[in-house]
């Protein structure tokens, strides 16, 4: 039995089986905290959990609908993501505490619940949702 290995891409990692890999942005431990006026207030004692990411790789057994989402932004499912260290850290090219490292997370493809729609222009004034006819009492 021959084991198939997925081709390596420019990220240095690929998703396997039914997994989806996203690249994320989040505040990091040790990052400077500044006030609105630019005054240095200190450093973060811990990093933030990423809330959204861009799909950068999908496994070979992921549904075609999710495969079509590569490059799209999605909200991340809270509690269902796992961290993937930057490959450059894994190969010793960057130190573990590097601020240059990229943030990657992985999840099962069925955990992808929504996609940000690029056709909708973000608005500073959000429309009010329809009033509910239900009452609490």
Order of helices and strands: EEEEHEEHE
How can the largest sheet be summarized? 5 strands, antiparallel
Write down how many β-strands occur, each being a DSSP E stretch of 2 or more residues.
Answer: 7
Structural class: mainly beta
Short description:
The protein is mainly β. The protein is built from two helices and seven strands, in the order ββββαββαβ. The strands form two sheets. The chain has a five-stranded antiparallel beta sheet with strand order 5-4-1-7-6, with no helix packed on it.
Give the SSE layout:
Elements: E1 19-24, E2 32-34, E3 40-43, E4 52-58, H1 64-67, E5 73-75, E6 82-84, H2 87-90, E7 103-108
Antiparallel strand pairs: 1-4, 1-7, 2-3, 4-5, 6-7
Structure write-up:
The structure is a single chain. With 137 residues, this protein is mainly beta. The protein has two helices and seven strands; from the N terminus they run ββββαββαβ. The chain has helices spanning 64-67, 87-90, and strands at 19-24, 32-34, 40-43, 52-58, 73-75, 82-84, 103-108. β2 and β3 (40-43) form a beta hairpin.
């Amino acid at each position: 039995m021959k084991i198939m290995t997925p081709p390596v891409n420019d990220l240095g990692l690929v998703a396997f089986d039914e997994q989806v890999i996203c690249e994320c942005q989040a505040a990091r431990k040790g990052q400077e905290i500044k006030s609105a006026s630019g005054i240095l207030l200190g450093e973060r004692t811990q990093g933030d959990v990423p809330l959204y990411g861009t799909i950068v790789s999908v496994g070979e057994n992921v549904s075609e609908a999710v495969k079509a989402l590569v490059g799209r932004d999605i909200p991340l499912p809270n509690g269902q993501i796992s961290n993937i260290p930057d490959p450059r850290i894994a190969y010793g090219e960057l130190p573990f505490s590097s601020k240059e490292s990229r943030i990657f997370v992985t999840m099962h493809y069925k955990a992808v619940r929504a996609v940000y729609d690029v056709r909708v222009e973000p608005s500073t004034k959000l429309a009010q949702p329809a009033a509910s006819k239900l009452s609490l009492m």
